[in-house]
Amino acid sequence: MKTVLIVDDDLAIREVVTQILRYEGYDVLDAGTGAEGLALAEKHHPDAIMLDVKMPGMDGFEVLQRLRAASIGAPVIVISGHGNIETAVAAVRQGAYDFMEKPLDRSRLLVTLTNCLAHQEAVADRRLLQTQVGRRSTLVGGSRAMQVVREFIDKVAPSDATVLITGENGTGKELVVSAIHRASARRERPLVEVNCAAIPRDLVESELFGHEKGSFTGADRQRTGRFEQADGGTLFLDEIGDMGEEAQAKVLKAVEESRFQRVGGAETRRVDVRIVAATNRDLSSPQSGFRQDLFYRLNVLAIHLPPLREREGDVALLLDWFMADLAAKLKVRPRRFAPETVAILQEYAWPGNVRELRNLVERLLILAPEEIVRPIDLPPMSGAAQSRPENASLFASNDFQDFKTRSESAFLQLKLKENLYNVSRTADVLGMQRSNLYKKITKYGLRTQPAE
Predict the structure, then answer these.
(1) Is 371 inside any structural domain?
(2) Residues 370-403: pLDDT tens digits?
(3) How far apart are CA 228 and CA 101, in angstroms?
(4) Which domain holds residue 10?
């Protein structure tokens, strides 16, 4: 059972909020002064604190400062009257989770508290995950899909077998290669990357195997190729599906025999190189234009990296990870994401995957006007139309009445979400009685808080 501490000099507010929260299954403590609230917080360590701003003696601002000084990490929801909004916002900037205006709305109160506690649990989970990972890898994520990737790395890294990594652009294929190399016996030797898509086709052979001086126009000096540079280490052939067929044939021979000749050279050179290849294409089909013999030679140990939209729960982890990492690099104070912002980003389809998320965090870190990133701060996102649809089965209706029912349910759920699940506000926007909206919420089993 979660414990909530209410600190407010208004007895009526304490009694009403206590009644609401106890009915919802919370254990409630209450205090009429800041000093009494601070003492209860130090003694009982509640899971969340609801704190009034204006109180005689020790006001909410001072209580908040003393809570932080005492290392009491319970999230604080500031309560303020209409005339104290600036003070409440200032309190949020000093570390309060959120603020609410008086008079308190029951639905908003419960949604805010639920989000607050969920956020606190997520923060704790992230800290635990970071401790377990030990920052040995930037492969951030606690989803089952990422657990499978980590297990794969742990198993294949000690071997010298060839690895093929597939997945959409931006899923972090280069991070998997880096993790495999660092966990291998070759970690002290070079990790050399070749972006096969960025090399002109007539220069791929020279880039990979090197060339002798005068071997072709422009070859004014001898050049060492990437195979030789990676001797004893790992050679990463990124976007290998974009490599031309002639170069594929020579790579196949080099991979199979660990030997090659420089362009224009006669000497056969031998290397000890582990090959890791990556692609965003399906190379298994003959229609891909990729040599099937090379595909089978590369496809010894294979792993498919899941797109971000299939990594349940990882968006929130990545938001915090990149925010902390980028803030340190840019030497600025990190922003915090409001729960409703996180909820929106968790519903987004992320066509650009982790790379797109990182770029968004960097943009928000520089441009967001406040310490807390709210939905209004989000830019137009190109993949918005690809967001997970809540009405995907709308047109699967069997008859018109079924379609009307599905349509109304989907419409009301969307409006609840747009109004942050505040039932009163949603009813006002829709121009309907709140009691009528509650009936429809019950009828259709609609959510009244963000999906976990």
Answers:
(1) yes
(2) 999 988 888 877 544 344 444 444 455 556 776 7
(3) 67
(4) 3-130
